[in-house]
Amino acid sequence: MRITCTWYLKLPFEYYYDLSSDIVIEEIVIKPWKSSIEMQHYDGFMVIYITHTDTPEPNLNLGYEHSFLHKLYKSLAQKVGVVVKDFVNKLFLHMDESFFNIFDGEDFIIPYGFSIPELGFNYDYSDAKFVYKITQERITLTLNDMRKEQTIKDLVREFIRQAEYFHEKGNFEMAIMNLSMASECFISKLLKDKGFPKKKLDKEFRNYESDYEKTMALEYFHFGFKKAYGKSLLEEKPDLFSVVEAIYKIRNAIAHGDNMYDRQILKINEIKYKDMFGFIRTLIFYFDETVNWINEQV
Fold first, then answer.
1. pLDDT tens for each residue of 20-56
2. How far is CA 65 from the centre of its chain?
3. Is 263 exposed, middle or buried (0-12, 13-18, 19+ CB in 10 A)?
4. Where are the domains of the chain?
5. Residue 223 — very low, low, confident or very high, per pLDDT cuts 50/70/90?
6. Taking the CB of residue 173, how many other CB atoms lie within 10 A of it?
7. Alpha-carbon gap, residue 257 to 220, rounded angstroms
8. What residues form DSSP beta bridges with 149?
9. Which residues pair with 44 in a beta bridge?
10. Do the beta carbons of residue 8 and residue 46 sit within 8 Å?
11. Is 55 helix (H, G, I), strand (E, B) or coil?
12. 11, 180, 184, 171: which is closest to 95 by C-alpha?
């Protein structure tokens, strides 16, 4: 039996599409989709996935039907999900708007519809809450980005956006972990490019004497950065250095199963925060400032 799975993804923006062909990834086709015939713009993707199965039509056993549909649904999400997510993530690099992560695990968290005509199965979507206008120029820039190899700066920006997403969702542990990964991949690549890979830096740092606590932040953002670029975040931007220290301190608390809500942890310099939401929002903002400052020095 031929099975045609069509997934209608109603995105939180409207866009204009005039490319000469659809996007085809193996047996998956991604087409622009209008939720209304009268619309002059597109507001979603129509993802078509065609497969065949030797199993009989699951119209007699509801339990089997549910399992069968779920398997197809999951298969489509796994196959096409990473491509659509990559497109949307890169699209928002060209927008001065909020970041939307359209995935949460295997499921879309934007409105969607799912249909299998052969089985008479339809699942309707609800209206999106946010609407942005996307021009063809931005879509073209996005597709060009998808053809390029991802750079470290792209990866750092992605980690920061993920931290923002988890922060807004209230998943503070994941927000901190993404900030930590952004920090490590960012500074490690800069130091490695100047001849200071991790093993070499670790060896030299072991013999370094300092009045400060020997932390990862001190090793990379003071000791390593000064050797590689003649600059020190600790010496020139101590407030920003304290933000990096706070990120690593909370990351270590999470990794060792300690309480990340400890009042001794919720502190930058001598400022104590009463709530985790405001604290992490501050960390994200000033870590972004840290990245910008370091990029100006290299």
1. 456 665 567 777 777 777 777 777 778 787 776 655 4
2. 34
3. exposed
4. 2-147, 152-297
5. very high
6. 15
7. 24
8. none
9. 10, 33
10. yes
11. coil
12. 11
SS3 49: strand
Neighbours of 291 (CB within 10 A): 19
Number of other CB atoms surrounding residue 86 within 10 Å: 15
Q: Is 22 helix (H, G, I), strand (E, B) or coil?
A: coil
Q: What is the pTM assigned to this prediction?
A: 0.52
Q: How far apart are CA 253 and CA 258, in angstroms?
A: 5
- Give strand pairing partners of 212: none
Q: Nearest-CA neighbor of 119 among 168, 60, 197?
A: 60
Which tens digit of pLDDT belongs to each residue from 91-111? 666 655 444 444 443 344 456
Is 14 in a helix, a strand, or coil? strand
* Structure-block tokens of residue 204: 């030299």
User: Which has the minimum average pLDDT: 57-71, 147-161, 250-264?
Assistant: 57-71
Torsional sign, CA 270, 275, 280, 282:
negative
Residue 136 has pLDDT above 50, yes or no: yes
pLDDT mean across residues, the chain: 74
Confidence of residue 237 (pLDDT cuts 50, 70, 90): very high
Percentage of the chain exceeding pLDDT 90: 20
Give buried/exposed letters for 10-39 (b at 16+ CB in 10 A, else e): bbbbbbeeeeeeebeeeebbbbbbebeeee
Question: In this structure, which amino acid lies at residue 234?
Answer: L
Query: CA–CA separation, 214 vs 206, rounded Å?
Result: 9
Please state, in angstroms and rounded to a whole number, the distance separating the CA atoms of residues 293 and 286.
10
What is the DSSP code (8-state) at residue 150?
Answer: P
* The predicted structure's pLDDT at residue 102: 46
User: Which amino acid is present at 223?
Assistant: F
